[in-house]
Amino acid sequence: MTETVVHLVRHGEVDNPGGVLYGRMPGFHLSELGRQMAKLTAAYLADRDITHLVSSPLERAQETVEPLAEALKLPVELDDRVIEAGNDFEGLTVGKNPKQLLNPRFWSKLTNPLKPSWGEPYAEIAERMDAATRDARAQAEGHEAVIVSHQLPVWIARLHFEGKRLWHDPRRRQCTLASVTSVVFDDDRFVRIDYAEPARELLPDAIEAAGSALGSGRK
């Protein structure tokens, strides 16, 4: 059997002093600390047998993969399938001001946390992340690939591959900033998940919050 590894990387910290749930909004870039995180993650991965790089099209993901792409001299393929999860509360500051959700116009969005009713269904996230991960595996067969994505898509991909329920408590996600969730395959068969936090030394200084079940502006 041929082993192939696809590393799902969460982007680094974003410059977001207003605490906006920015989701797929353009114009949100890595903070200086986030750029340091990206460099640590690049250093962690640079010596591995990586032959294929993929990124979410959002700025923070592209900026996270940049130092690794420079080190490996590899092009980066942008893939809409690994973009941040859709969220109907995009643009709000519900992490800092949850009372916004008391507005009656939001009540219809809060009916089913198992789906969830306020955004892209977990099952749809799992489907697109599975397809993107398997395509990256095929591109890097016998070697390794990196996909830079976002906290919720990476965590849902992990739950999906491990055969666990997709509904979860966001406070218990094991997916810190600039972390590496590695999906290991034998041929095209999923074998296991490995996990690492190359930027752990910077996390105490990061504005890192798991958020509520609605997510946070720092995903």
Automatic annotation (TrEMBL):
UniProt GO MF annotations = phosphatase activity
User: What InterPro entries does this protein map onto?
Assistant: His_Pase_superF_clade-1, His_PPase_superfam, PGM_Phosphatase
Show the Gene3D superfamilies listed in the entry. Phosphoglycerate mutase-like
For this UniProt entry, what's an example GO CC term? cytoplasm
The protein, known as: Broad specificity phosphatase PhoE
Organism of this sequence: Flexivirga oryzae
